[in-house]
Amino acid sequence: xxxxxxxxxxxxxxxxxxxxxxxxxxxxxxxxxxxxxxxxxxxxxxxxxxxxxxxxxxxxxxxxxxxxxxxxxxxxxxxxxxxxxxxxxxxxxxxxxxxxxxxxxxxxxxxxxxxxxxxxxxxxxxxxxxxxxxxxxxxxxxxxxxxxxxxxxxxxxxxxxxxxxxxxxxxxxxxxxxxxxxxxxxxxxxxxxxxxxxxxxxxxxxxxxxxxxxxxxxxxxxxxxxxxxxxxxxxxxxxxxxxxxxxxxxxxxxxxxxxxxxxxxxxxxxxxxxxxxxxxxxxxxxxxxxxxxxxxxxxxxxxxxxxxxxxxxxxxxxxxxxxxxxxxxxxxxxxxxxxxxxxxxxxxxxxxxxxxxxxxxxxxxxxxxxxxxxxxxxxxxxxxxxxxxxxxxxxxxxxxxxxxxxxxxxxxxxxxxxxxxxxxxxxxxxxxxxxxxxxxxxxxxxxxxxxxxxxxxxxxxxxxxxxxxxxxxxxx
Length: 476
Description:
alpha/beta, 15 helices, 6-phospho-beta-glucosidase, Glyco_hydro_1_AS, EC 3.2.1.-, glycosidase
């Protein structure tokens, strides 16, 4: 076997999120969270965008998160499957409302603490390092209703208390932490990203960027607390990654792509560099608002993250003539269709070289280790007469992206690890579907919530096991 270009201590594994996998949405004292109110079907997008207020559940709608894939009750078996593949890292999230059901309590829910202690201990039993996201599109609904979620500065206090509780309760079990998942999605899906619901007359841009400021302050304080609780803790930020390409070499297209990249990177600029970027003053001025900033905020923001984590599914295209009609509606982050690359069944451009481009750009910009914590192909999988799932299309996608990640490492970029998205089939965050599958493990459940929830190893399961065993040297 040829020598691997991946470091000997490279972490290989997969990723899920509590709200897309756990289910048991009110079990063990858990409170209702934002994702529990997002239905499957025609109203889903309006709710995710914060345009349709949903503070209570409806009898006539299906909520995929309520049962999801029942990871809450089946995690020991699922982690055993991950260990069988050879995982050395498993990314998941903590449901905030499982620890603090309302979000503003002083004392945590003991059942929630016990569940996550058991979950992380199960990982360690199999020599799997947990990588834990504190807030993965998951805000207690009580905080949305009582405080307006991240509109309110009070959220900083609630989130830092929650984070400290987690750092102390799980000390010795978890050392890799992420503050906010895909923090830039706040701009594109405000209710999903940050629990924001708009009122009539709102300056929506101001609401979003003020909420972003509160999250950035919270993230910086949480990073500081993590290091105080245990200096070995490593804290990362998390970007929904993928560069924008200019649609042509027309200068207006190049500028449009640069502006679109800045829109996404704005958050990471603050979290990784410790200050608002130079372009932000003009950005806020042109959007017609001033941020409410407290004395001392600039000092707080200097608590920068240890590493930069990101998701990568697709690159994007931008032009000076971009509008609602010509941009791709398949993804929440709007983009023009790239004629030079193929697309997935859901219209996401498949661009492995784009991953290498994105990684080089981010390391050039931040000079911090990278961690690719989401990457995968959503596809419809068929179970054949023999009960097999031959997902060669997923193997092809992952192989080419792992190669590109290897090229980035050879470019000199320090990379901590790789967690493919949805290592076990789960509810799609974008569409609420189960049929948009990402996993190495098939879960018997359909888009309406029917099925046995039985787990089946796909062809990609055995392929990824071989990749991990060879530390990325054998991708055949």
